[in-house]
Amino acid sequence: MPVNEQTAGPDRATASASGRSGRPKGMRSKLRELLERSDEFLVRDWEDIYNTVRDAAIGGDMSAARLLFERGWPVRKGRPCAVQIPTIRGLDDAREAVAVISTALGEGTVTLEEAKALADIVAQAKSVLEESEAEKLAVELAAIREKLSRGPRLVA
């Protein structure tokens, strides 16, 4: 569509001589300017803002209290787990690890999310063990096939 007076209003950019349209180089967006001004406001007045929110929380405003706690003491994620699962060297170890995790979950030692993460680790270890076992069986089967392909040996 060619640029004309109907499509190019005062708020629309018109095509320049180079054929480009849009904001001239170096011009800043209104959003960026607004964000920079709000950052300046927060840096300059952060102590007053904090004191206002703190006073509101002390006065019983639960939203203000939640804001202070969420920002001051965020929920820890990825904390060390209090459950000692056995080293998984075989499928019996994997079964024992699942039993330990289930017990810890039942006792409330770990959360559901932590138990799931531990169970995922056990499942991955079990998968690696099963792949390793399958590789061993494949090698043994190939050796047996090699023996059988030679045929029986007659002793004279």
Draw up the topology in text:
Blueprint: H1 30-58, H2 62-72, H3 91-107, H4 112-150
What does this protein look like?
The protein is mostly helical and 156 residues long. Among the domains are: 43 residues, no CATH class; 59 residues. 62% of the residues lie in helices and 0% in strands. It contains 4 helices and no strands. α3 runs antiparallel to α4. The radius of gyration is 34 Å and the shape is elongated. The model has no long low-confidence stretch (mean pLDDT 81).
Low-confidence stretches: none
Q: What sort of overall outline do the alpha carbons produce when their principal axes are compared? A: elongated
Mean pLDDT: 81
Main sheet: strands, sense, barrel = none
Radius of gyration: 34 Å
State the order of secondary-structure elements, H for helix, E for strand.
Answer: HHHH
Helix content class? 55-70%
Q: How many DSSP E strands?
A: 0
- Please state roughly what percent of the residues sit in beta strands, choosing from under 5%, 5-15%, 15-25%, 25-35%, 35-45% or over 45%: under 5%
The number of helical runs is 4
Oligomer: single chain
The span between the termini is 98 Å
Name the structural class: mainly alpha
In short:
This protein is an all-alpha fold. The protein is built from four helices and no strands. Among the domains are: 43 residues, no CATH class; 59 residues.
